[in-house]
Amino acid sequence: MTVYDSTVETNQAIVRRIPTEIFDDGDVGLVDELFAEDFVGHVPPVPGELHGPEGFEGVVRAFRTGFPDLRHPEIHLVGDGDTVVARLVGVGTHEGEFLGIQPTGEQMETTAMEMYRLDDGVITEAWINVDMLGILQQLGVVQDL
Where are the transmembrane segments (predicted)? Predict the structure, then answer.
């Protein structure tokens, strides 16, 4: 028997909006709605922590500037209580500056593992790991190992 947990379902729906509406559609204003004022993000290779919605907006703007056609064709979510884990596949074309790297026109495909903690329908903390080495290799900035 499957037990329905409306909190988990609601939290998964909120997290799904990040790749689809914020990153893919470019609705950066939605960050203020979904992220708590005291949000803390752990996103290597960003040094230190991200704080507040504006901290997460910086990550969004970096990816949206570098890959304006960014799309997430695969989104897998698992929820447990106040936590949602996402495995994402992102694809895009390097058409703008990204991490100081001038546009190469190269296509990239990357994966990410993300874990979000929510409280009363807003995201309070996140741990995000994107395959940055893979991105840099596909852009020709780092040689394949």
Answer: none
Q: What is the pLDDT of residues 59-108, one digit of tens each?
A: 999 999 999 999 999 999 999 999 999 999 999 999 999 999 999 999 99
Cβ 52 vs Cβ 37: under 8 Å? yes
Is residue 1 situated within a structural domain?
A: no
Query: Residue 144: inside a domain, yes or no?
Result: no
Q: What residues make up the domain containing 102?
A: 6-138
For residue 45, the domain's CATH number is: 3.10.450.50
pTM of the model: 0.92
With beta carbons less than 8 A apart as the criterion, state whether 69 and 95 touch.
yes
Number of domains in the chain: 1
